[in-house]
Amino acid sequence: MSYEKTFSVHIFTLNAGGGHYATLKALNAIAEQQKRPWHITVTDIGQLTDLLDPYKKLFGVNANEMYNDMLSMDWTWFHPVSMFLDKFFINLLYPQAVKLGEQHWNQQKAIDLVISLVPLHNRAIWESLQRVKPGTLMATILTDFADCPPHFWIEPKTKSYFICGTERATNQARALSVSKEYIVQTSGLIVHPRFYQPISSDRPTERQRLGLDPNKITAIVSFGAKGCATILDIARDLERISDKVQVIFLCGTNKKLAQALQERPTQLKQHIQGFTEDVPDFMNLADFLIGKPGSISISEAIIMNLPMIVDRNYSTLINEKYNADWILEKQVGMVIKSFKQIVPAVEELLKPENWLRYKANVTAIQNRAVFEVPDVLQGILDR
């Protein structure tokens, strides 16, 4: 369908973890590839609400920086407290947030659709939007496998569309009495279209280029865009089976971690990689994933046909706990209580009967969300 009109689309994202910006990049890429008639503007909700940030006033560091530090330093055991405080402060400062939102919308020209890729702030986004630009449409795209109610992703009192990547999230929206017409379930979460493109490079040759054995079982270790100190512990433990596996370490923006991995004495064949946009190429060289149960990392691994080993315990992020359950439900990998168990877990994963089952289950999952969501959004715009 050709359009004479260009639609104005305003997207909210968030620099807390890597998933929100990863989803934004994926949406931008697919919109450009498909030549969608959208003029996209982007607002970082953290920057918009910076003046209200209680953490910055109390500690001199904004909420998103604190969250990212918590991830990189492996202090995720603190997340239940930080989640409680986030919800408390956002509720306490709700009237001021709505006023900030009104000021923001008053500075914008006509908008056809607002897309939220962020949790916690959607009620204020909706109310301020309707006060200034009544009737403007809104869609909330969950970048998690499940909601963490109340007032996390799904705000039932709004008239936002909720685009859910799992049956669990869809059922949560229904349980919160969201009208059926405002719930859309896709085949998964949005992953960058690059993950779907054929990779023509020869795996053994590319492994050799990275200093790896061309034929050895290869793990890829990733804890998201911010990296995590736990990766160093995993590396030390994998020394015990360096004769069986080699490893690609994705350290994200965590330069201290990358340096520590480089400087340690090791018998393990390894490649250490900082932040990169070429994650599909590195995953293509791997046989399985080791990491935290991040929703985007899991989704990327599924597309690249990688079984996985993740942990789930008291320190798992609240919004990622269900992700580990999903892995068990779908039988696409193993969930362990601690990465201290990584060596026996790898050995168990690689047993032929287990390996064949996990590979078959991973391959059976067809996530086409990045191609489905643009049609959903265009359908909303056309109403």
TrEMBL record:
GO MF terms held by the record: hexosyltransferase activity
Database matches in Gene3D superfamilies: Glycogen Phosphorylase B (3.40.50.2000)
InterPro entries xrefs: Glyco_trans_28_C, Glycosyltransf_28_UgtP
Ranges of residues in domain Glycosyl transferase family 28 C-terminal: 230-337
Pfam families to which the protein is assigned, alphabetical: Glyco_tran_28_C
Protein name (Swiss-Prot/TrEMBL): Glycosyl transferase family 28 C-terminal domain-containing protein
Naturally occurring in which organism (per UniProt): Chlorogloeopsis fritschii PCC 6912
